[in-house]
TrEMBL record:
One of its GO terms (cellular component) is cytosol. Signal peptide: none annotated. It comes from Pseudoalteromonas caenipelagi. Belongs to the UPF0301 (AlgH) family. It holds the Pfam family DUF179. This is UPF0301 protein HG263_14435. It comes from the Bacteria.
C-alpha cells in the first residue's frame, strides 16, 4: 500500500455526499489502519478571532489573522480544532507533515495566531475526515477521488472558492471536462 500522506484528495463531480462535494482534502495520515485528512476549501461562518474568543484565548482583533475564516475540516469530531501551518521554529507541539506543512492542536500555537509570533501562513479547521482500514482504497477504486501531491500554495495562498479547480488543474485537467459518470475498462 502506498501512503497518500501529504497528498490532496480531489472530489470527483460524481461524489454527491453533501460534505465532500467539490472538496479538496489534505491527507495528514494514511497507513494500514486507515486515513485522516482535513478539508481545506469549506469555510464556515466563524472567524479565527471569534473561535479564539469562544475557547477563551486572548487575541488581537485588529490583525488580519483574526479575520481569517475557519474551515469545516470534516464530519468527524467537529468540536476539535486543527491548525495547518507553515514551519515555524519553537513550535515543539507541531508535527511536520512535509517540509512546508505542519499540523498542531496545541493551544500555545492558537494563542500566537494573532500576534507577531504566528507562522507565516496557517489554516484552522474544525473536525476532520476519517477513513477506516481499506475504506479510502475502496473509494479510490470507485473513482470518488483524484489524487495529487499536495501543494501548500493551494492551502495557504489560493482563495477557498478556487482551491478545487486549481487542484484539478495541477493534474493538467480542465475541471469542466470531468464527467460525473464512473467507468472501468
Amino acid at each position: 500500500m502506498q501512503s497518500l500522506e501529504n497528498h490532496f484528495l480531489i472530489a470527483m463531480p460524481s461524489l454527491q455526499d453533501p460534505f465532500f462535494k467539490h472538496t479538496v482534502t489534505y491527507i495528514c495520515e494514511h497507513n494500514e489502519d486507515g486515513a485522516m485528512g482535513l478539508v481545506v476549501n469549506h469555510p464556515i461562518d466563524v472567524t479565527v478571532g471569534e473561535l479564539l474568543d469562544k475557547i477563551e484565548i486572548d487575541n488581537d482583533k485588529s490583525t488580519s489573522a483574526a479575520a481569517e475564516q475557519v474551515f469545516a475540516g470534516g464530519p468527524v469530531h467537529t468540536d476539535r480544532g486543527f491548525v495547518l501551518h507553515t514551519p515555524k521554529l519553537g513550535y515543539s507541539s507541531s508535527q511536520e507533515l512535509s517540509s512546508n506543512i505542519m499540523i498542531t492542536t496545541s493551544k500555545d500555537v492558537l494563542a500566537s495566531l494573532t500576534s507577531n509570533a504566528r507562522p507565516e501562513s496557517f489554516l484552522i479547521t474544525l473536525g476532520y475526515a476519517g477513513w477506516e482500514r481499506g475504506q479510502l482504497e475502496k473509494e479510490l477504486l470507485e473513482n470518488s477521488w483524484l489524487v495529487i501531491e499536495a501543494d501548500p500554495t493551494i492551502i495557504f495562498n489560493t482563495p477557498p472558492e478556487q482551491r478545487w479547480e486549481k487542484a484539478v488543474q495541477m493534474l493538467g485537467i480542465d475541471a469542466t471536462q470531468l464527467s460525473s459518470q464512473a467507468g472501468h475498462a
